[in-house]
């Protein structure tokens, strides 16, 4: 399996902010990082450059400019949250996460990397068969902000074709790798009927944190309507055992606080997407 590489994302996000403010050219033609690059994704890079706050500002701006195509959370009127898992499927952590969710009778949302699904189609079908929602998470986890227009579109469409072949439908929801997407790219996804889903609760589990740290991180910005970011597929050398150990505790904590755990389509009131899921 080709490894999913981590990229240093905050420069791209800063360019997104500059673009929104009219001070930078489009990033569609930006050069990608070297193929052997491995650095912190924007979740961690943002903490290193907190004074700039590029991710927070750009995501707020995007959600305001594209309310029908971009969200980081659901409605705050009900005590509902959505557990989401990125970078699936893999053959180590994905089954463990699915086992826990089945035991706890919780449905979640899994964002699929096409390259991985092509090598583990049975795991993709298991995710769907157990009642979870599925979204598009690119083909090989390259940051969209670094791609040409045609390569960006192919990242999404190639995964959509694969998902339709195995699931019988094309999921409406997609999550950009590292949460990075430009306004022009968002206009394209909206024109094709996709809805971009990022998050407002970051467990930072990809860093190999302990279960205690992951549960603490999950509580920092937790609120009604939250979309919680976790991972159920690891890049090369990544240890997600903390995610697996934390998940039962997180579910118990959410229940104790009175939260209902639902899929992203349920959280956002996407009845059409829910119905399409049931057609398979």
From TrEMBL:
Superkingdom of the source species: Bacteria
UniProt entry tagged with the keyword Nucleotide-binding: no
Transmembrane segments: none
Signal peptide feature range: 1-28
One Pfam family from the record: Polysacc_deac_1
Cross-referenced InterPro entries: Glyco_hydro/deAcase_b/a-brl, NODB_dom, Polysacc_deacetylase_ArnD
Keywords: Hydrolase, Metal-binding, Signal
Biological process terms in GO annotation: carbohydrate metabolic process
Entry's Gene Ontology molecular function annotations: hydrolase activity, acting on carbon-nitrogen (but not peptide) bonds; metal ion binding
Residue intervals of the NodB homology domain: 79-262
GO cellular component: membrane
Protein name according to UniProt: Polysaccharide deacetylase family protein
Organism, as annotated: Paenibacillus albicereus
């Amino acid at each position: 399996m080709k490894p999913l590489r981590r990229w240093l994302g905050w420069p791209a996000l800063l360019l997104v902010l500059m673009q929104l403010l009219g001070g930078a050219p489009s990033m569609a033609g930006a050069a990608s990082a070297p193929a052997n690059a491995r650095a912190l994704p924007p979740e961690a890079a943002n903490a290193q450059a907190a004074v700039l706050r590029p991710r927070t500002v750009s995501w707020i701006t995007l959600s305001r400019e594209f309310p029908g195509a971009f969200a980081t959370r659901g409605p705050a009127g009900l005590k509902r949250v959505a557990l989401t898992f990125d970078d699936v499927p893999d053959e180590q952590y994905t089954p463990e996460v699915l086992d826990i969710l089945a035991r706890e009778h919780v449905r979640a949302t899994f964002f699929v990397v096409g390259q991985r699904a092509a090598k583990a189609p049975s795991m993709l079908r298991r995710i769907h068969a157990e009642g979870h929602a599925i979204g598009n998470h690119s083909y090989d986890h390259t940051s969209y902000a670094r791609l040409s227009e045609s390569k960006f579109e192919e990242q999404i469409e190639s995964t959509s074709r694969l998902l339709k072949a195995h699931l019988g439908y094309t999921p409406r929801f997609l999550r950009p790798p590292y949460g990075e997407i430009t306004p022009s790219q968002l206009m394209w996804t909206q024109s094709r009927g996709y809805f971009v889903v990022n998050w407002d609760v970051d467990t930072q589990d990809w860093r190999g944190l302990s279960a205690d740290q992951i549960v603490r991180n999950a509580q920092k910005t937790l609120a009604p309507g939250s979309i919680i970011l976790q991972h159920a597929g690891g890049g090369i050398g990544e240890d997600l055992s903390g995610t697996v150990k934390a998940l039962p505790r997180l579910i118990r904590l959410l229940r104790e606080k009175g939260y209902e755990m639902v899929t992203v389509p349920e959280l956002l009131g996407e009845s059409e997407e829910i119905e399409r899921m049931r057609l398979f």
